[in-house]
Amino acid sequence: MKPAGGRGGWGWGGGKGGSKGGDTGSGTKGGFGTRTRGSSGGGRGRGRGGGGGGGGDRQRRGGPAKNKNRRKKGITVSVEPHRHEGVFIYRGAEDALVTLNMVPGVSVYGEKRVTVMENGEKQEYRTWNPFRSKLAAAILGGVDQIHIKPKSKVLYLGAASGTTVSHVSDIIGPDGLVYAVEFSHRAGRDLVNVAKKRTNIIPVLEDARHPLKYRMLIGMVDVIFADVAQPDQSRIVALNAHTFLRNGGHFLISIKANCIDSTASAEAVFASEVRKLQQENLKPQEQLTLEPYERDHAVVVGVYRPPPKSK
Question: Where does the chain hold its CATH 3.40.50.150 domain(s)?
């Protein structure tokens, strides 16, 4: 009968060392060894650790394997304020336009949320996709003023399901108000669900062509943003401005050329809409195309200057 192989001792730097015995029964348990490879116990022995008797050249379990658990180099992230108050720029693996999330932990349309430590506190921001928001496209396009800032009162015409409205809600904060007008009942349901978690959004499910139908719901506002994509959108903006926009208030209107006249060039359509606005005491101050985010779209920004009332 062959003698039993000795079981290896406990290694100083690894897990339980040693190999099992050879073809016959197990041997005696070894003592505590130094950090050296033990002798092989036999043909079937397998090393369970690195410090004691080893059955082969396997990596011991007690220590880290080579190239394992190697940490990737960390990426420094930060958030910088944009020149438009209430809008921010996220600096990380990729730069992005963001707004401070008014309802932390909740996404509105599946947008990415990022958390940054500021003054020892966690702040959550929501990324703002310019391909899904005309206002974000205008900001990234370099618009001079959006006139929407904390504590503003905003009338949003054509709110749809609340994608851009939610970011306006972030910008104006809890002390502001955004009246979101949407005629489609299907989109209106989504808008109402967004408003349930955001107390500064007041959904108005009415046709923006008839502002007198909802005049009892809306007070005077500082800014009108219109994204209605209708042939008579200049008239729609004018009607709401005469009813709700304070003297010296501002407007932003997103113009989609194909919705107004698909036969004329986009530049001709934009010029025609600007003339219509001027006739309604809406004074355009800036015009910006939304390339490359939207094709044949422009945003016109201006101020409302109604004529003085005759005594």
Answer: 134-304
